[in-house]
Amino acid sequence: MALRILERVNIEKLKEELFKRGWNEGKFNSRQAMLKEFNNYLWVAVLEEEPYFLSLPKEESSRVHSEGMKALREEVESLALTLGFSLPIKGGSYA
Which of 29, 44, 62, 64 has its CA 20 to 30 A from that of 71? Predict the structure, then answer.
């Protein structure tokens, strides 16, 4: 499941804020992305005009996936306040 932002976001400001929060540049499905790794899961922010965020568990565990998604949603809510984009975000599949 992806957390999608349903409006355009300034990608450079988003990247800058993610860097401050310990994210690193990378690629996801050949798209520009930011990544943040934890012991049990990996967060991915796909940097498009309407970005989306993923939490990918490192093991098949619904508990780990749930923990990662909850923490990621809190991170995205904090980003929304800092960068001024609006929520709600919509859960959905990623392309």
Answer: 29
Token couple for 71: 């923490």
Strands (DSSP E) contained in 1-95 are 2-4, 24-28, 31-37, 41-46, 52-57, 90-92
Threshold 0.85, pTM exceeds:
yes
Whole-angstrom distance, CA of residue 57 vs CA of residue 38:
9
Q: Please name the residues in contact with 21: beta carbons below 8 A apart, sequence gap of 6 or more.
A: 36, 75
Tokens representing 29? 């499905």
Confidence of residue 37 (pLDDT cuts 50, 70, 90): very high
- 41-66 b/e with 16+ CB inside 10 Å = b? bbbbbbbbeebbbbbebeeeeeebbe
* Phi, psi (rounded to 5 degrees) for 54: -130, 150
Confidence at 86, pLDDT banded by 50, 70, 90: confident
